[in-house]
Specification:
Strand order of the largest sheet: 3-2-1-4-6-5
Distance between the termini: 62 Å
Strand content: 15-25%
Helix content: 25-40%
Oligomer: single chain
Mean pLDDT: 91
Structural class: alpha+beta
Bound molecules: guanosine-5'-triphosphate, magnesium ion
Order of helices and strands: HHHEHEHEHEHEEHEEEEEHEEEEE
Number of helices: 9
């Protein structure tokens, strides 16, 4: 007999006590204990929360479509969370179709790691333009940090302004910080800490999680669609820790002559092909080591050192790591070349350059943000 369905408060999955290898498994005694406290977590969440160990499960694209379709049929406020370091990888394909006539606000998360020298206004302007390109018409675009309590006030005000006694769906691709954001809101409004499971692994939340609001409506966390263009999919646990910046990024300045190359660990490569000697500024996680070589020797250098001097990837990940693919650009004005999910390099003078990223990960240019 099926008992009444109970969902894991950490990831939304339906709890079951019979099949240890299957999704939602929770030992019976843990379930009973959880019911007493009113907070049931599945075993996968338990391991993730206490040991940072991930048990891989993959939702299918159909699961996401079903969820997105459901949102399309609701009268609700939609909050689309994107990662400002991975904007291209971080847009849900076709989201505009599911949003329909519902009001949408766009939230650029992880602003805590953005150097203070960058202008927030330029960043939101850029986000707004990309949103329009993707067919989205956000009522507002806001930068925030799910890690900073003081950043929540403005977001909560916006949500209240546009919600108008409706449910609020938080949507976005995996790893942009949706659950962390909701946890911060719960902490601010109800004083409960870390209710929902979050992790640096893609694919943490598995189903809808409904958090009651005070007017009988809900704030709803959703699983993030897995976007194959995200750098995170090609890296293991330890590397994810390195590439995800924890602190404000310290820009690193390089004076380069033409025909010089920079390697961002073994994850990406930047070639200065033609132009005057000038300064190039790298905005990537502080823990990523940058190496300079001659362009003519760069291919050899990479072959020889990837997984060694050039990490991540780690030595045992090199075999599976995609080859780097080259994109060439002719730069006329101050421009950022963005390596999706990793960061960017600002080019200050006209130049011909090439950016290389693992196959599948985007390299794009945008007007400089400084
Ligand atoms: N620096 C920084 N990191 C953040 C922020 N918000 C979330 N993160 C980190 O981003 C990673 C992913 O966060 P989650 O909240 O699990 O992301 P999610 O969007 O819920 O992911 P799924 O459940 O897989 O869809 C975690 O390592 C978080 O600590 C932020 O504002 N700043
Ligand atoms: Mg989540």
């Amino acid at each position: 007999m099926n008992e009444e369905t109970i969902h894991c408060i950490g990831c939304g999955v339906v709890i079951q006590t019979d099949e240890p290898q299957e999704l939602g498994y929770t030992p019976k005694n843990a379930l009973e204990k959880g019911m007493e406290n009113g907070e049931v977590y599945c075993q996968r969440c338990f391991r993730l929360r206490h040991y940072n160990e991930i048990q891989d499960v993959h939702l299918t694209d159909d699961d996401f479509l079903r969820l997105l379709n459901e949102i399309g049929q609701k009268d609700a406020l939609i909050v689309n969370v994107v990662d400002i370091f991975d904007f291209y990888g971080a847009l849900i394909p076709g989201l505009h179709r599911f949003v329909g006539d519902n009001p949408l606000i766009m939230v650029g998360n992880k602003v805590d790691i953005l150097p203070k020298s960058l202008k927030r206004g330029k960043m939101t302007q850029w986000m707004r333009e990309r949103a329009h390109e993707a067919g989205l018409r956000p009522l507002d675009v806001l930068l925030t940090s799910a890690r900073k309590p003081q950043e929540m006030t403005q977001l909560l005000e916006l949500i209240e302004k546009y919600r108008d006694h409706r449910d609020v769906y938080i949507v976005g691709v995996t790893n942009v910080g949706k659950s962390t954001l909701i946890n911060q809101i719960i902490k601010q409004t109800a004083g409960v800490q870390d209710l929902i499971t979050t992790s640096r692994f893609p694919g943490t939340t598995l189903d809808k999680i409904e958090i009651p609001l005070d007017d009988g409506h809900f704030l709803i966390d959703t699983p993030g669609i897995i976007h194959r263009h995200q750098m995170a999919h090609y890296l293991g646990d330890k590397d994810l820790k390195i590439i995800a910046p924890h602190k404000e990024i310290k820009p690193k300045v390089y004076q380069l002559n033409p025909e010089q190359t920079l390697f961002l660990g073994g994850l990406a490569r930047f070639d200065f092909i033609k132009g005057e000697r000038s300064s190039f500024v790298a905005y990537v996680a502080n823990d990523i080591e940058i190496h300079r070589t001659k362009l003519s020797n760069a291919d050899n250098f990479y072959q020889k050192h990837v997984g060694g001097l050039l990490q991540p990837p780690r030595p045992d990940e090199v075999a599976e790591f995609p080859e780097l693919v080259r994109f060439e650009f002719s730069i006329k004005e101050k421009t950022d070349i963005v390596f999706a999910g990793l960061g960017w390099i600002t080019i200050t003078k006209p130049a011909v350059i090439a950016g290389w990223a693992p196959r599948g990960v985007d390299v794009i240019v945008r007007k400089g943000l400084v």
